[in-house]
Amino acid sequence: MMSPKKQVNIWQVAHTAGVSAQTVSRVVNERPDVAPETRRRVLEVIDQLGYQPNALARSLIRQRSHTLGVVVARLDHYGPSRTLIGIEQEIRTIGYSLLLDLLPRPEVEDVAQILNRLLSRQVEGIIWAVPEIGSNRNWLEQKTPQMPVPVIYLSMQPRPGLPVISIDNRGGGRLATEHLLSQGFQQVGIITGCMDWWEARERLLGWQDALVTASRAIEARQIVEGDWTAASGAQSLGCLLERFPEMDAVFVCNDQMALGALQAAPRFGRQVPNQLAIIGFDDTPEAAYFCPPLTTIRQQLGEMGALAVREIIKMIEANRQNIAEILPGPILLKPELVIRESAVGKLY
Amino acid sequence: MMSPKKQVNIWQVAHTAGVSAQTVSRVVNERPDVAPETRRRVLEVIDQLGYQPNALARSLIRQRSHTLGVVVARLDHYGPSRTLIGIEQEIRTIGYSLLLDLLPRPEVEDVAQILNRLLSRQVEGIIWAVPEIGSNRNWLEQKTPQMPVPVIYLSMQPRPGLPVISIDNRGGGRLATEHLLSQGFQQVGIITGCMDWWEARERLLGWQDALVTASRAIEARQIVEGDWTAASGAQSLGCLLERFPEMDAVFVCNDQMALGALQAAPRFGRQVPNQLAIIGFDDTPEAAYFCPPLTTIRQQLGEMGALAVREIIKMIEANRQNIAEILPGPILLKPELVIRESAVGKLY
DNA sequence: CTGAAAGCGCTAACAC
DNA sequence: GTGTTAGCGCTTTCAG
Fold it and tell me: Do B148 and A260 touch (CB under 8 A)?
């Protein structure tokens, strides 16, 4: 078997095998109605010439591209990059191809171009894995109904009638805060992510849920907004300690900021976890090696990506068979608590 | 402007505008020879119907897909993911599309499938951004000459006659070690990455270069192999200190392992940097927030990706014009030293 | 079992 | 300026 220097087409194979193009096509597509001897000869020539069917021509006539469009942003963040890995692996498993688009500025709303690029390349479906930031979802209410292919949205506020898969960030925030409370901490602050991110707002709500359920007072001074970076984690901790000096525990809304907070705490005279408990969100591979190892919330990011692929394939199949459009209800994936040493209680 | 529920083709536009398909084609391709009035009418219909040219059909006839195949692995690592970001952004800038393939097991040599998938989709070039691991480059010596499209390789040992772009890992390793030496440290150990990775071997060579130049002895006990993870960094530091107790500085070959080492050092009774200096490699965003902040080597990963795109486009253009194949000589990107607090010398 | 004809959506080359 | 014809590489009828 060898690849040729120049791409070979079906006619050349047909010609050198002494058959018609249709016969070659049948062999390639493993149709039963080919004489064994003919099939053998054709296969031999295919192998010898290194023939590869042109997927473009095939897509054109079959009206199926076997391609999914995937739009992501902030690959430098843990969440998006793990999600993409999950998406890609599942797409490969089902034998599809992945056309990738990275949004440099995910907060921007003008998505028509991206969508059109993908559509012009005849993707069969689109996975929109861009974090919901600001109003960058405004377009979707009006665009979605008229999209010629199914679109599935990741990591955003579930909306009625739209296929959405998200992590239950609110539940995760609640989980984190409840853990702090259950460890006997009394004064729980929070360092949020960028508040124009949906995830950030949800995690904050989860924090509030837990405090309300526990009948704790909530004041504005307990809340400081970070921007997801370690730098902001360090800085925000300073703000927080100044405004809310009695704080004995803090929910930091991602692991990077938690790292910053962990580093800054000693500078403010606080030992972690004795004088200040810290809990993060994400469970990045490094989190176990922070000082002290970080208690945090693990999200099933890869699973979310894989699920998105499976769901969109379902939608594509349903469309093809003209089944009444099944809009899968929003799916929420439950995060889980990972206990390490940065939030060990004083009670024990 | 509105997208239609169903994709519209050039004939429907032609028909409703009362012209021929050819005229629509001319308008779409901004050819000059169309009457202004006709153009206006056609554009109006296009807008109204939400017509998007079918890129597949276009590629078929023009024999240009405007698509690049990109193969990456280990997106969970800092290097590959930053490289991909650089690649994608440059590809978008030049108006191409990106067909992505992730290799789940980059150490495996059987790449024919991946290549064929990409080729069958008529990519105009392939960027192979998979780390060189073990003998997973064996295929390339025999395959490359017969590839129907240009292939450019990232992050591997430069090979004569092949287009390769890599970071100068050896230079980086040397830079790191020289810094340690210049700070007055005497006994320099190393925790390498997986030694079947080219990068790991290069960084080790760089370490040796620096020691040899400084006329220091090199013994096997100064070297311990890690596996790039924080866990292995912690563990390897233990090994190293046991075998090489007089060590006062260590070059840890990536930031994740350096994090592990940083965490483990106090457990072995070593203060960083007073009793043990640590220098990393990568300059991940978190490195500045380790305790203490990590001195490390910064690589121009995004730039490498962008460069790869520009180079492969050059090769494609050269091919198209039948210019004698310009094989760009191997390109080595210089890393730079980022000084922070984990390797501050005793001299000062 | 195999081949001939038609056509997927588009554009290059030629007519008018 | 604009329409017609042909054909990119493949597969789907439909004959034979």
Answer: no
DSSP A71-130: EEE-TTSHHHHHHHHHHHHHHHHTT-EEEEEEES-TT----HHHHHHHHHTT-SEEEEE-
Check: pTM over 0.90? Answer yes or no: yes
Average pLDDT per run of 10 along chain A, which is 348 residues long? 70 94 95 92 95 96 97 93 97 96 86 93 97 87 84 93 95 98 96 97 98 96 97 97 97 97 96 96 96 96 98 93 77 97 81
Q: Which residues pair with A249 in a beta bridge?
A: A188, A277
- Residue A33 CB in 7 A reach of strand C: yes
| Residues spanned by the domain of B50 | 10-62
B346 to B174, B179, B184, B277, B310: CA distances (angstroms):
20, 13, 6, 10, 45
H helical segments located in B188-299: 198-213, 230-243, 255-264
B312 and B292 within one domain = no
Asked if B115 has any chain A CB less than 8 Å from its own CB, the reply is yes
Taking C1' of C8 and every protein CA, the nearest residue is: A61
CA A174 to CA A292: how far, in whole Å? 22
Residues B173 and B284 in one domain: yes
Residues B279 and B176 in one domain: yes
Nucleotides of strand D under 7 angstroms from a protein beta carbon: 1-5, 7-13
Number of domains in chain A: 3
